[in-house]
Amino acid sequence: MRKWMEKVSRWKFDKKMQLLVTVSIIATTLIVLVVSTISSVTSMKQQSIELLQAQNSTTAENFKSSLDNYKTLAIATVMDTSIQQYLKAVNYNKEAGGLKSSAFNILASISNMHSDMNFIAVVGKSPDDYIYKGQIAISAAQFSQVYTFDAQQCKTVQDSSIKMCFNNAYFNGSKYTLNIYFPIYDTNRVLGELGLLCMNFTDPSLLQILEYDSSNKLESMVVDTDGMMISARDKDKIGTNVDFIPKMKEKSGTFSMGGRLYIYQKVSDWRFYVVSSVPMMELYKSSIRTIFLMAFILLFLLTISLLVVKRIISKVYRPLDKVVRKMDDVASGSLKTRINVEHMGEDFTKLAVGFNSMMEEILVLMEQVKMEQHQIEQIRFNALQSQIQPHFLYNTLECIHWQAMVDGNGEISTLVKALAKYYRICLSGGHDVIPLKMELEHVRNYLIIQNMRYDDIIGSEFDVEEAASDVMIPKLTLQPLVENSIYHGIKVKEGKTGSLFLKVRKRSSDVLITLADTGTGMSQQQIDEMNQHLSEYDDSFGYGVRNVNKRIELLYGEEFGLYYLRNESGGVTVEIRLPYVTQVEDGIIRGEMIHV
């Protein structure tokens, strides 16, 4: 090292400056490149965001205005006296000749006043009792064939009862229209429903998105707050669900996903978002030429710099390289490797001496580890010899069972017999994967024990398709889920009574097991968090359920496992999806089959 320093000190000033200038140019160029790139990209991104936000805001305002007008029109129509009187007449089988004519004139007047309305119709309680008025004939619109099903499929889009959907259900699928459905209530009776108002519009806001230039990389769409796509340039996506709704937490904003920049705007007072997206690369195109030029300059300067510093690095690194080579020898198994400390300089001599000392310590520690490992194996052997044989436990429980029978104590007999069957699967050297019918028997025994503990607070119902009873399932899959339902659902419920419903159905290539309870249930947020953490490690999440799901994933793949959802009774339902497999590969089953 001293010789090297002496050699450097003898360099000419220009040679020293060459190194200094090279490093300075590289640093300066890198800073300029980074600052220019960040400035250019940030500026272009901000301009694009502002432009798209303005566009989305305009579209959202126009769409809101249209929706508000549609709602106002719907309310005015259903409140009209002629419409009310006509529906009351047809619903109660009264003469409606003149009333129908008056109601038809009202619909005709509305249709004539709105150029974007394709048709308007009022339907009574009977599907055949309707009045239709439109710019297109009823046969061409296919109103009578479509409206019942379409009204059921549409979703409410506000806190009121108004339903809307944008599709091509009418007109033989030839065009996309906005369909609006509004229930007609008796103005003189609370909750007295008379019929249904149906309106069909060619909405300009949605149509503009639908007919957007396909050559443009910019995409615009309208989605509802549940994530269903209402209108999009790609018509095949209409009605499908998007996966970015959780990112839209404000009324407006931006986020990045899948290499695209998304800008969204909430349609005020309605359950819709106007969303625009553009590939991130489109924002950077104008800056790419500058970035490439600066990168070329940087590469050129780096090449020059490398040529200058290469010789210096090789000299500086040589002692360290010697240490690295010796470490490679150790990695290949040569534990007797040592470093010659001559001609290494003061700093690297210390490193070499430390390396040699470390190798000596490793040899000593390896001998200690071998001795300790031998002792551990001896301890394990002794522990195995001293284990209580599970059959002793089974035989003891069997004796208690028969003694209880002799003494006439049926409850103890039932409890001990169920416990014996329960532990045959839990403690024996049985299979890791067993037929579903054995797992169900295990659950039944568990429920017998729990009902005797808690005074029969748990009702149960098993509905098992015979074709699915032989499917192979990881042992102790259902019992932890049943236990969760009891302790976190039924026991904490007021009154502490509830029921479990277990249904098993075989589908084409898999089996679906549904376990539902009537317990206290969980909120949708809690359900979503549980599903999210099923395959993730989280100290705050119960390991029992996660272990059940993980065993299924490890055995059959990530497409199988658990999924939680709320049920109609207010409790929780868990779905277990398994492949329809009646035999498992060698190596999965260990020990002999235990029949219970």
Account of the 3D structure:
- The protein has 596 residues and is α+β, with helices and mostly antiparallel strands.
- Helices cover 52% and strands 19% of the residues.
- The protein contains 15 helices and 18 strands.
- The protein has helices at residues 2-9, 13-79, 81-91, 97-113, 138-141, 143-153, 204-210, 280-331, 345-385, 390-406, 410-427, 436-453, 478-490, 524-533, 543-556, and strands spanning 117-123, 130-134, 155-156, 163-167, 177-185, 193-201, 219-224, 229-232, 252-257, 260-266, 272-279, 433-435, 458-464, 472-474, 498-506, 510-517, 561-566, 572-579.
- A hairpin with a 3-residue loop joins strand 15 (498-506) and strand 16.
- Helix 2 (13-79) packs across helix 8 (280-331) and helix 11 crosses helix 12 (436-453).
- The N and C termini lie far apart (79 Å).
- Mean pLDDT is 79; it is low at 12-16, 379-389 and 587-596.
Largest sheet: 6 strands, antiparallel
Shape: flat
Strand proportion, as a percent range, falls in: 15-25%
Unreliable segments of 5+ consecutive residues: 12-16, 379-389, 587-596
Helix content: 40-55%
Distance between the termini: 79 Å
| Helix and strand composition category | alpha+beta
**What integer value in Å does the Rg equal?**
38 Å
Question: Secondary-structure map with pairings?
Answer:
Elements: H1 2-9, H2 13-79, H3 81-91, H4 97-113, E1 117-123, E2 130-134, H5 138-141, H6 143-153, E3 155-156, E4 163-167, E5 177-185, E6 193-201, H7 204-210, E7 219-224, E8 229-232, E9 252-257, E10 260-266, E11 272-279, H8 280-331, H9 345-385, H10 390-406, H11 410-427, E12 433-435, H12 436-453, E13 458-464, E14 472-474, H13 478-490, E15 498-506, E16 510-517, H14 524-533, H15 543-556, E17 561-566, E18 572-579
Parallel strand pairs: 13-15
Antiparallel strand pairs: 1-2, 1-6, 3-4, 4-5, 5-6, 7-8, 7-11, 9-10, 10-11, 12-14, 15-16, 16-18, 17-18
